[in-house]
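Researcher: Hi, I'm a grad student and pretty new to this. My advisor asked me to get structures for two proteins we've been looking at. I'm not sure of the right format, so I'll just paste the first sequence and hope you can take it from there.
Model: That works fine. Here's the first sequence with its structure tokens right after it:
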Amino acid sequence: MPSIPASSFSFVTLSNKTKRPWGLTWRSSNVFITIVVGLGIATELAVYGLIVPVVPFRLEQMGYHEVGSLNGWLLFAYSAGLAVSTPPIGYFSERHSNRRTPLLLAQILLAASILLFMFSPTLAGMFVGRVGQGIGSAGVWVLGLALVCDSVPEDQLGRYMGAVSTSFTVGRLIGPPLGGVLYEHGWHYPFVLALGLVFVDFLGRLLVIEKHISRAWQPSDSPQKDAPSAGLNDLPYTTAPLDAAAPVDPEKLSVHTVGAEARRPSSGLAVLVSLLRSPVCILGSVITFAYGFIAGGRDTALTLRLNHLYGYSSEQVGLTYIAAVGGSFIASPLTGYLTDKIGAKWTTIGAISTFVPFAVLLGIRTSATVCIVFLAFFGAALSGILSPVMSEFGRAARGLPGVGYAHTYSLFNLAYGIAACVGPIVGGQVYDRVSNGWLVLCILFAVMMGMCIPPAMIWMEDKTRLSAIFLRRKRRSAEEPHELDSPAQS
């Protein structure tokens, strides 16, 4: 029998010469893939946070002056590397066969950048290391989120994205305190921990088996309960025998390359136009920007606020941050679950409606205890907004011809990267230079998020029963004219 080209079908039955990988079931499971991606994002944010509190002291040791300004430029270098590299990473990821290889390369770049930053004797070397870290982080975020969407069924995407968004909290929570403690023992210690975290994450990514590869070892008649639901990124597949003389390497099989005629990648300009014409992508980017801006502005000004108003030490501020982000361990999975049940529309609106009043209340001068309570609700609601928005980016990719998950999550990452540049700067300037700067900042946070409610009402997905009834009636009304015309035509 003649050989069948691998590109002509999207599912193959491997020859007996190809050995089944050990641990195939759990290594390709939705839970394991989500844990690995979440660990990667948490690791990246923890690495970022480990370095932030120790850099000013290092710059002083190196003999630099105006340390605050120089530290700001180093933070900018990270955000700039992340923002500039995100679009090409997303574009080229959708044109190649798998997610794992570029993810591993991103981890290697991240480790190399940490080493450069740790051993550099000059500010220029530290700047280059920070840019490299931003590029590596862009790969971790974009490719990791796309990998989750490749693997998870559409009707469960919200809860898995809720679990992933919890990793944002974990990374932001553990980084700065550990960095400060380890720095007391020496400059290199925070970086050694950072490299250890990256290494553990690297091992996890080596273990992952992507869904399109694991299907090659599944019988054609076996149910695939973990397989994602059909969409633009999930082509239907058929089984076909292979010539034993022409075995296929399963690593080269991919939903991105097989069936090329059915789903040929669009050009960069066509992808950009599709993304900019999608209301869901635009709204998701606006909300993501607001999220990043608020998180950065809060982190910049909150330490000063707690110190000036309540006389909190750095240790007390660190404990207060636990309240600020601890609520997200409940809020993120909860809003992810609700997204799957009732849709992103009402979940997002509910989270924003909770966030807005607590943002305003947080700006009012109160006792320390009441302030911490307001801060806990503020942080939980802010984190809860992210899960449905991340899920909507995945839904948008399924509905845009020629657009893949890495494309839409590049837009997500770009919006967050720009906000990470702008938010801390605006937060610090408003707090220092505007009368009642903290109150003004909190009102700004409330207005930014509150303005997203009307477009969310229009464009976000609604899975409620009322919406289903409305859509059913709309379809019937559209079909009625055709039914009336058919007797006349006969």
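Researcher: Oh nice, that was easy. Here's the second one.
Model: And its structure:
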Amino acid sequence: MPSRQSLSEPSSEPSSQPSAEPSAIPSSYTEPSILPTGTQNPTITSSNAPSDAPTKLFIPGEMLLVDEELGIKLSSGLEGRLIAEVGEKVEFATGKKSELKFHSRHDGAGVVNLEDRGYVYVSNSEESKTNGAGVYGIFFNLDNDIIGYENLLTNTKRNCGGGLSPWNTWISCEEFNRGHCYQVDADPMSPNYMQTQKTVLGEGRGGRFESVAFDNRIENRTTVYVTEDAKFGAMRRFESPTVGYDSLHNAGDMSYLQFVDDGHFQWTTNLTAARESANEVYPNSEGISVHDGTLYFTAKSTQKLFILDLDSLTYKLETTGLSFEGKGSFNAQPDQVIRGDRRFLYFTESGGNNPGIYVRDLYTGKYMTIFEADEDDGRYAKDETVGLAFSPDRSRMYAGYQTAGVLFELKRSDGQAFP
């Protein structure tokens, strides 16, 4: 057992196929008043409690500014800094440094909210050997300052993606032929803090698992979806009649995704049929996100985004990055995907000369750039962006590059939240 050490899109979205003709400067993106707004007043002086009020200062991809120190091109209105680098100790706000060095091959990540005690950025290591692989945590206080760095999960390997549970734990997935998914509780005050264990999501045989996402619309049961990065890797759905930590360690019902025609899908208990469907329609599935009855996932090798309506059992399909607006390009393989809380889908990218972080506007269907590698610099060519996550107030975005082993913290210059 591993141990621890210190489809329904918004109605205004077009249903036609995306256009391949990019616009030089985006004209359609604003943060309009039809979106949910908070009760706080706008501010440009504090990012601890960002306002949801509209702003035109940050427009993804309108202008990309080179940050020579980081080696990336940032959308105007963003600021970035390096917070961790492989082989180096993590520096704390106090000036002290961690005992451990930042882990290599960092990959999937999430943020565990500790409420009035800050938050933990949990990060997988995709090392192929158990020595060094697992899950690590960077601890932050309420002022977004780094105060700790710990190893949270050991004795696993190739921890690739994962996902956050509704009860504030991190599910870390192994990506090799007999890999499994493990539940990690990063809250030192939780009774499960030192109780990491293998979940039932991999069943007995295991698999090349990638990411997980929960549909928590039903309060008294658990529904979780798991992608598998293989040609015949069938997405699985696990349903438990209970909720909470133990629901992932006890028996439940398992079914698998099968596409039945050009617009419909079903959940089947026939794993062979689902694997055939995966090979034909969605090989090498990667990132996954669920929001309000809509499931989004990517198929890396075919560069597709699938949008599933979980209630009507219908779906839509598009090529990622084809309908692009503004500067930059999203033309390599899509990897992780995170649904923002208001407007965007956020993507990481694998490969290409300038891999980056991109968004898809849920209202227009257009893709835009958050940041991408500076092609002239060249240090991130053929690398992949990883570690995409947000602070609980969404004032901070975290992401980096796996092979180069760097992790960035981004924030908006206007002090507001990422939508």
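Researcher: Is there anything I should tell my advisor about the second?
Model: You could mention this: The radius of gyration is 20 Å.
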